[in-house]
User: Fold this.
Amino acid sequence: MHRSLIPLALFATAFSAQASDGSEPSASAKATPAQRVVAVGTQPSVAGPAETFSGRVRVDPVWTADESLNASGAWVTFEPGARSAWHMHPAGQRLVVVAGVGLVQEWGKPLQEIRPGDVVECPAGVKHWHGATPTTAMTHLAVTGVRDGNNVVWMEQVSDAQYNAR
Assistant:
């Protein structure tokens, strides 16, 4: 056999449908996860609660954390002037801005403007908030890690003075 075909033959042999003794593979060898499609609209939208958001906020769950991916995902839409309370994520979060213009702030640091295509990396344990500008709505995809069953620790509301500090 040609030398370059030996690795290919070994690979094919290792992953053939039959065991070396000719029997069928065990049930555990057959049990591979299957891809699935979660149809849009199968998870209802929810309003962001007043305890953790100011203004009108809509959360559209996309997926929940599970054994194959320890992070949840949701589209979050903030109407003009709406924002989250101060909070942190025990396992971190990524925000992908998809529409509008938003604001983010890490505790003790300056306010930053975010636009479509921007990605905000929120490390684990970092106190921050995010929301829309006073005049423009903003939507982001939030991908949030889970640690010990928790994905967020909510804190105090963002004051108007903090929100309007530019």
